[in-house]
Write a structure and sequence with these properties.
The structure is a single chain. By secondary structure, the protein is of the alpha/beta class. The chain has one domain: Purple Acid Phosphatase, chain A, domain 2 (4-Layer Sandwich). It is built from nine helices and 14 strands. The strands form three sheets. A seven-stranded mixed β-sheet has the order 6-7-5-4-3-13-14. The radius of gyration is 19 Å and the shape is globular.
Length: 310
């Protein structure tokens, strides 16, 4: 991967300048905190997509997300919506220190040369009023066209535009959000009990989603609709989030990519230097590390990757 460019004045907005160069804020020079294990060397990718982190909620796996961001380097980082959960924060403030660490890590990546593009979703739709602007080196955009290293054009957007519930029954979406929040709270207590028995993190919400027939059918229809819309736009593929279901599927000439979430699955979509794409399952990586630690084994240097369809 090409070497990272030096931070520019643009990355720091209208901050102080000395001898024609921006004066770096002190926290940018600090070592990363939060107790995360920073692996050396970091995993290097051309591009990384993450979405549906839902910072500001009890379901957000901020510690695992921070660990992931400290373990990777990339030229471009896409934040594909629902990064901050405005729906929940409007009802009551929840913002533990781990959520600050995630924000700080993203800003440090932007300051040190990573292009960071924030494509807001429905839970952080308040940020859509600011698309076209740049905050601390983070570009806000309603959607993006990403050019891969092998010359493919990918439409990047959150994906709530194609959710019939969001479009035609917004009240039902809010009702479903309340039920989902309750499920995530239950998930938290389940994992507290699992930790007491030395068991790794596990997603109750993700498990139930895979078992419920209607949820599986909804996901399948959603993927088809998004792929059809991408075909009409004349691109080669589409990257989205929204439904918390990481996937790489082929629909005719269109490749559909969903980067998953950091509530249920803890996954990210990555592009390698040659343009090939993979899904990183960071939760599975942590489970392997924990089992290896208990068994006294060495772990793989790379995390588990989702299979890519032929």
């Amino acid at each position: 991967m090409a070497s990272m460019p030096a931070p520019s004045a643009r990355a720091f907005g209208d901050g102080p300048v000395r001898n024609g160069k921006p004066v770096l804020p002190g926290w940018l020079l600090e070592k990363d905190g939060g107790g995360a294990e920073i692996r050396a060397p970091r995993l290097k990718f051309r591009t990384i997509w993450i979405s549906d982190t839902h910072l500001g909620t009890v379901g957000c796996n901020a510690g695992m997300l921070y660990d992931f961001l400290c373990s990777v380097e990339c030229e471009t980082l896409y934040l594909v919506g629902d990064i901050i959960d405005g729906w929940v924060l409007r009802k009551g403030w929840y913002w533990p220190p781990a959520h600050n660490e995630v924000i700080r890590r993203v800003l440090k990546m932007a300051a040190h040369g990573t292009r960071v593009v924030y494509v807001p979703g429905n839970h952080d739709e308040m940020m859509r009023d600011y698309t076209g602007l740049n905050f601390g080196g983070v570009e806000l955009s309603f959607e993006e066209i990403h050019m891969t290293a092998d010359g493919r054009r990918l439409l990047v957007l959150h994906g709530d535009q194609f959710d019939n519930v969001m479009l035609y029954a917004r009240w039902l979406a809010f009702l479903g959000d309340k039920a989902y929040t309750l499920l995530l709270r239950s998930n938290r207590y389940v994992n507290i009990i699992r930790r007491q028995f030395g068991l790794p993190w596990w997603s109750l919400a993700g498990h139930l989603k895979k078992k419920v027939k209607n949820a599986v059918q909804f996901i399948s229809r959603y993927e088809e609709v998004v792929a059809r819309a991408a075909s009409e736009r004349g691109v080669d593929g589409v990257v989205c989030g929204h439904i918390h279901s990481a996937e790489i599927r082929q629909f005719g000439d269109i490749t559909y990519y969903n980067d998953g979430d950091w509530v249920e699955s803890c996954t990210a979509l990555v592009e390698n230097a040659d343009g090939s794409m993979e899904i990183i399952d960071w939760a599975a990586h942590h489970r392997e590390m924990e089992l290896a630690r208990r068994d006294g084994r060495e772990t793989r240097s790379r995390p588990q990757l989702a299979p890519v369809p032929a």
